[in-house]
Amino acid sequence: MMHILLISVALVSKVPHEEDVVIMGSGPAGMTAAIYAARSGLSTLVIEGDETGGQITLSYKVDNFPGFPDGISGEELGMNMRKQALKFGAKIQSAKVESVDMTKQPFVLKLEGGKEITSKAVIIASGASTKWLELPSEAALIGKGVNSCALCDAPFFVGKEVVVIGGGDSALEDALYLANYATKVTIINRKENLRASPYLQNQVYANKKIEFVWNATIEEIKDPINEKVTGVTLLDTITKQLKFFPCDGVFIAIGHSPNTQLFKGKLELDETGYVITKPHTTETTIDGVFAAGDVADPKYRQAITAAGSGSMAAIDAYNFIQKQKGRK
Fold first, then answer.
1. Strand 116-124 to strand 107-111: parallel, antiparallel, or no bridges (unpaired)?
2. What is the pLDDT of residues 263-313, one digit of tens each?
3. Is it the case that residue 1 has pLDDT exceeding 90?
């Protein structure tokens, strides 16, 4: 009897764990999807990747998310969403998905360590990561004066001087928005010309609050020791000289990279790697696979829009699963 029991346990352990919905990502899109999916009675598993809680957790304070008139820290907002998802029965696992087989139903997700999970539906909410400068001083000051979202954090720089790093549309859009709050905005560009559209360039050049530093890159952001931004050390790309440029905040606007490496060649992506969804839905080019949040949104990239699309993805997944049941 003992031998029989051991064999049966071994066989069971090889059977992949099955869920109704697996959500890849734990930011506002992923957690909202988890809340809606679990609340509707679906067995729901959230797989956290490298960025637990998503980029919202990097925001020192969020005061444009409805329901928090006094604002809330990004970390606390993320934790509240997490608690709410757990309350309705969602499961959360800290792991990294190594591969996804979308060629058959149910879908098979292989996690690091070899564990396999099958799922009737998959919601991709893996977000888009900011392209950072990769400086130690930058990493130390993220959320303490170093930011990646002007729309989110501009109100915290009223009456202050800030710099924007970049020369494309995103950088100029951030500069124009910041000029509504800061007393001075300086765009630091590594070249002597901009990549942005002529329309945005004309707007920026006409704004008296916005200035430029050409042919320069940032070598260091001050001052991690005092846990606040006091200025940046610039390297002149022509003369190779260093100089200190005082400021109160630094906005990185050199682009975003959608976290879609796993889906290249499997799902339809746009030229920059964002997941393409069918109009007015979160459906992708594979039935049963949905995308929500920044991973499918190169334009808005807000916590509230991500949360909204997360709810849509969960509803779409629920309807998909019900239709599949009806066909059996």
1. antiparallel
2. 999 999 999 999 999 999 999 999 999 999 999 998 888 899 999 999 999
3. no
Q: What's the count of helices (H) and strands (E) in the chain, helices before strands?
A: 8, 17
What is the predicted pLDDT for the residue at 10?
38
Q: How many CB atoms lie within 10 A of CB 223?
A: 15
Residue 314 token pair: 């969960």
Residue 8 has pLDDT above 70, yes or no: no
Question: pTM for this one?
Answer: 0.76
Same domain, residue pair 117 and 227 = no
Return the bridge partners of 109, or none.
100, 117
**What Å distances lie between residue 259 and 142, 190, 255, 273, 276, CA to CA?**
20, 26, 13, 8, 13
Structure tokens at 293: 């949040």
Integer Rg of the chain from CA: 23
The CATH number of the domain holding residue 28 is 3.50.50.60
Q: Given the residues 20, 152, 294, 316, select the one marked as catalytic.
A: 152
Residue 30 lies in a domain: yes
Per-residue pLDDT at 250 exceeds 80: yes
Residue 247 annotated in active site: no
My answer on whether 291 and 179 are in the same domain is no
Choose, from 149, 174, 247, 248, the residue flagged as catalytic. 149
**Catalytic pick among 20, 153, 174, 294:** 153
**Residue at a domain's end among 252, 274, 292:** 252
Clarify whether 153 is annotated catalytic.
yes
Per-residue model confidence as pLDDT tens digits over 10-20: 333 445 678 99
Residue 8 lies in a domain: no
Beta bridge partners of 100: 109
